[in-house]
Amino acid sequence: MSKDIIGFTKRIVEFRDARDWKQFHNPKDLSLSLVLEAAEVMEHFQWKNVEEMEKHVRESKEEIGAELADVLYWVLLMSHDLEIDILAALDKKQTKNEEKYPVEKARGKHTKYNKL
Amino acid sequence: MSKDIIGFTKRIVEFRDARDWKQFHNPKDLSLSLVLEAAEVMEHFQWKNVEEMEKHVRESKEEIGAELADVLYWVLLMSHDLEIDILAALDKKQTKNEEKYPVEKARGKHTKYNKL
Amino acid sequence: MSKDIIGFTKRIVEFRDARDWKQFHNPKDLSLSLVLEAAEVMEHFQWKNVEEMEKHVRESKEEIGAELADVLYWVLLMSHDLEIDILAALDKKQTKNEEKYPVEKARGKHTKYNKL
Amino acid sequence: MSKDIIGFTKRIVEFRDARDWKQFHNPKDLSLSLVLEAAEVMEHFQWKNVEEMEKHVRESKEEIGAELADVLYWVLLMSHDLEIDILAALDKKQTKNEEKYPVEKARGKHTKYNKL
Fold it and tell me: Which long-range contacts (CB under 8 A, 24 or more apart) does C78-81 make?
């Protein structure tokens, strides 16, 4: 099975369609699911300080990876359904980021580009 | 430039490191950023009914794609920093999903696997 | 026990302080917790259509109420810690909303005030 | 105007109904809005360390209060629409919390009750 984005998208869409779940997959519920999975990633780090996070990452890498995979799952399925070429979109966005955050102005600061 | 996940991850990490932003990128803030970007995707569909969503997707595909790209950006950067092979994690998760949701039981239902 | 916002805030703060949890309650983790609880409210309505939501509200009112209470818990605790008078803030915000959305312009539309 | 929860709920519902917005206010979109506003609270603390958060709270108390008020707005409106007595729900939830987290077991720990 193809191990790239196109291959995974195909696998996920086939999984979905075999279960006749397309009927539930409007953009609102897809994006809601995306948020819920992102929140599950974040929950792993609630209340933890830096040392506790490092320990948790070492001990629960598999679980955190599974949550991140859930986020990626919805990114891929949503991109498919909305006919968005997600890698082209990332390429474009990243090119913009490189312009919005010039190295000399942005170095060492977590300031938004519009306040740099 | 490589157009696959590994190529994009490399590009994003180099972009980040050139700006000396690693110091801010603890897992808590990375996951918080992931949630914020997922929320921005979801905001596109707030209050809209099915027809309004279809119209919005047609008219704002570029903006929605940019938001989904932001989510993917944090998935890739976070996976890199936590040393998670995100495609292996997705492969594993998807294999589990296929077991948890057998076609004959799950077809046409949006029920969680533990209530099927 | 007082059944208003001031009484509940006092009760929650005393509950927290008796457990020596103030040390974990920086604004980032408080707001992260607020998001997680809001996400749990939202999860109740994932994939459901209007009829299914109505049925679910009838059958799970207690659970949904408990999740909404969790959100309110963090609103009150966070307002306390940041020395924000939350009812004064709501009064102010609502006065602004009334100006930003004049009845004659906003009636029957889910358009943001800056696009009305 | 009444400055308590019941008074504010009345004011918010009248504001909404005067604009004929009830038609958009199904539980899914209400909870989605709740999450979006909670995310806006959280965004205030993205990337900031403890000192930066303290400074930000001092300098932007009004803005943060307005975001927290937005969260409370949706808690009150949603509770109204779903016929949930939110203060009774909070009372009940808090009574449970007091049982789930006995002082002697929970003191100084950010552990979930089921792992205490």
Answer: C78/C27, C78/C30, C78/C31, C78/C34, C78/D41, C78/D68, C79/C9, C79/D65, C79/D68, C80/C9, C80/C12, C80/C13, C81/C25, C81/C27, C81/C30
Residues 6+ apart with CB under 8 A from C61: D82, D83, D84
Tokens 């920093």: give the residue. Answer: B81
Through-space distance between the first and last CA atoms of chain B, rounded to whole angstroms: 45
CA distance B41 to B69: 10
Cβ contact (<8 Å) for A89 and B98? no
For every one of its 116 residues, what pLDDT tens digit does chain B have, with 9 covering 90 and above? 346 899 999 999 999 999 999 999 999 999 999 999 999 999 999 999 999 999 999 999 999 999 999 999 999 999 999 999 999 999 999 999 999 999 999 999 999 999 98
Q: Under an 8 A CB cutoff, do C36 and A39 touch? A: yes
- B36 has a chain C CB within 8 A of its CB: no
User: Chain D residues with CB inside 8 Å of B45's CB?
Assistant: 32
ipTM exceeding 0.85, yes/no: yes
Of all residues in chain D, the one with the smallest CA distance to A46 is D110
| pTM (2 d.p.) | 0.96
CA distance A17 to chain B (A): 9
Q: Does C12 touch chain D (CB under 8 A)?
A: yes
Cβ-defined contact of A103 to B19 (cutoff 8 Å): yes
Instruction: Tell me how many residue pairs between chain B and chain D have CB atoms under 8 A apart.
Output: 27
Selecting from A15, A53, A75 the residue whose C-beta is nearest the C-beta of B71 gives A75
- Binary contact (A35, C42; C-beta < 8 A): yes
Q: How far is CA C21 from CA A51, C24, C85, D108, in A?
A: 18, 6, 22, 6
